[in-house]
Design brief:
By secondary structure, this protein is α+β, with helices and mostly antiparallel strands. About 30% of the residues lie in helices and about 20% in strands. The chain is built from 18 helices and 20 strands. A five-stranded antiparallel beta sheet has the order 1-2-5-4-13. Strands 3-14-15-12-11 form a five-stranded antiparallel beta sheet. Strands 6-7-8-9-10 form a five-stranded mixed beta sheet. Helix 5 packs antiparallel against helix 12, helix 9 crosses helix 11 and helix 15 packs parallel to helix 16.
Length: about 550
């Protein structure tokens, strides 16, 4: 039998995620944490990082890396009150790097927090009724859900299920409250974790709930998914999906992105039991000897869907029915004002790469703070890195629009569909896994791709482009019509052929391209698309129909 990974030892010996984390945080001799504690920190919702732009400079000066911490909130369904937004804004300005980042998991990330400010940050979040529990690490992470808040009673029900599921799958350990909020210290043995056990999960675990016809959460990209089945405006149950995930490793064909399988139908009241059964099945059968093979997608691929469903049904005491019909039409967001059935209004604002900061010509951090001061509804973060000002009364729209115009919060949505739908991960300089730029490079790249589209008479057509600095897939590049995956500084793998509904993986087209090679490849394909496309045919669909992309054998076998 293969040996367990070192991370498994750290988790199992941590006494419920405590380890020596409290001592590491209090140690004044270093800006970082002990190695084991840096690993445990992830399960508390934070990553230790350093500024890679100055890493070598500090090494030459014989200084340790400039350690800083990323902190991620737990925000089920992306729902945030105006009061919470104001608290989050204040934390970003006082303790982080004067910016907020909206993630593809419908939550906020703070960047640049010094170790000495970690406890202060956690306390400030707690005062706003927020926390970071289980937003990173080998646990169920933030539960995401279709973001249009009150389009129908079913949307409100789905938002409530996202909240309930997030609470249900939280770890039971009080370590978070002890370490960050000075709660009562544990005496004796660690708490029992009925769902996670002593070693928690083999790897991270992600859940999404979609409400057709919108697949704005890309439900098939998740370990566990629920597709709401709505009849006459009422939620009658969910189609269950299992085994999705997008992370891979360059050069390792045993790792691959995978779309989730449809596993069956369940009534709403069975959701928590079935979710727990899926999690515990992965807990007991997931690979703890190889972290690259530890996600649920490999458990399902290796053992088969039939085996997995039978195990889940046995554990949940629920017999799944056959999947019910559904149809997705888009995985993008809708911008501008939309009216809900209850008469209230919602406006989604485009936030490129999710970064909210005060630039001299786009003071968005200040603008959204001012909206939060007058808004009486709530905010909904989307899985496409945007924010919806939700639940506004009709007589509040003019005041909100005035602030949007004053702070230029609408400038990005006027730039065309390519920019409206593009996604990018953080990448350099803070992500330790990044091999290439993503967020910082995206505006430059989009401008050059737009010039190609314009040259071929394709300007204004919808086109999804997503890029990441490494193959882990945080911005879901493997579902885009054009996916760019960082391979080395200034070089990317080009993946092509995703669809507009989040139901088809793209495929690797060419590897290790610099910008000139990348643009040349797209220029050739855009020329063909302009000459040969059918009416209303998307670029990704055209590539498959014209056989310019094809599924590789290994991918189809997987």
């Amino acid at each position: 039998m293969s040996a367990l990974t070192p991370v498994e030892r750290i988790k199992s010996e941590s006494r419920g995620l405590r380890g020596t984390l409290a001592q590491s945080v209090a140690d004044p001799t270093t800006g970082g944490l002990a190695d084991d504690d840096a690993q445990l920190l992830r399960l508390h919702g934070s990553y230790q990082q350093d500024d890679r732009d100055i890493r070598e400079e500090r090494r030459l000066q014989r200084l340790e890396p400039l350690w800083r911490f990323m902190v991620r909130l737990r925000l089920p369904g992306g729902v945030c009150t105006p009061a919470q937004w104001l608290a989050i804004n204040d934390i970003a300005r006082r303790y982080a790097n004067d910016s907020l980042r909206l993630t593809t998991r419908q939550t906020f990330q703070f960047h640049g927090i010094a170790k000495g400010k970690l406890k202060t940050t956690m306390a400030a979040l707690n005062a706003a009724l927020l926390d970071t529990i289980a937003t990173c690490g080998d646990v169920n992470r933030n539960v995401i859900a279709s973001s249009n808040p009150v389009e129908s009673p079913a949307h409100a029900a789905v938002a409530d299920w996202a909240r309930r599921l997030s609470e249900y799958l939280l770890p039971k350990t009080r370590a978070y409250h002890e370490i960050w909020l000075d709660g009562e210290k544990l005496e004796g043995s660690a708490e029992i974790e009925p769902v996670y056990g002593r070693s928690f999960l083999p790897r991270k675990f992600k859940v999404a709930i979609a409400v057709p016809p919108s697949n704005d959460v890309d439900v098939f990209a998740h370990d566990l998914g629920f597709i709401a089945i709505v009849e006459s405006g009422q939620l009658v149950g969910f189609n269950l999906t299992v085994g999705g995930g997008l992370g891979a490793t360059h050069g390792d064909p045993k790792t691959f992105p995978r779309l989730a399988d449809l596993a069956g139908f369940l009534p709403p009241e069975a959701l928590l039991k079935v979710a727990e059964a899926v999690v515990t099945t992965q807990r007991d059968f997931g690979d703890r000897t190889n972290r690259k093979h530890a996600r649920l997608k490999y458990t399902v691929a290796d053992r088969g869907l039939a085996w997995f469903v039978a195990e889940v049904e046995k554990r949940a005491g629920v017999a799944l029915g056959p999947p019910r019909p559904f149809a997705f039409s888009s995985n993008s967001d809708r911008f501008g004002w939309q009216q809900a059935l209850d008469g209230r209004w919602h406006r989604t604002l485009r936030i490129p790469a999710g970064r909210i900061v005060d630039h001299f010509d786009r003071p968005w951090l200040s603008g959204l703070r001012e909206i939060a001061r007058l808004h009486r509804g709530d905010f909904r973060l989307t899985a496409n890195q945007n924010v919806t000002v939700a639940g506004a009364e009709a007589d509040a729209r003019a005041a909100i629009d005035e602030l949007i115009a004053r702070y230029r919060l609408d400038v990005a949505e006027r730039r065309g569909p390519l920019r409206r739908d593009a996604l990018a991960c953080v990448a350099l300089p803070t992500c330790p896994l990044a091999m290439a730029e993503a967020e910082r490079y995206l505006p430059q790249l989009l401008g050059r791709v737009e010039a190609l589209l314009d040259a071929h008479g394709l300007a204004g057509l919808p086109l999804s482009l997503r890029m990441t600095g490494c193959p882990n897939g945080c911005a879901r590049p493997y579902l885009a019509e054009i996916g760019l995956v960082g391979k080395a500084p200034g070089r990317y793998n080009l993946h092509l052929g995703g669809d507009a509904r989040g139901e088809r993986l793209n495929v690797l087209y060419r590897e290790n391209l610099d910008e000139a090679q990348l643009l040349a490849a797209l220029d050739e394909l855009f020329a063909a698309y302009a000459a040969e496309r059918g009416p209303d045919e998307r670029f990704g669909d055209f590539l498959w129909r014209s056989r310019r992309v094809a599924a590789p054998q290994a991918a189809s076998a997987a």
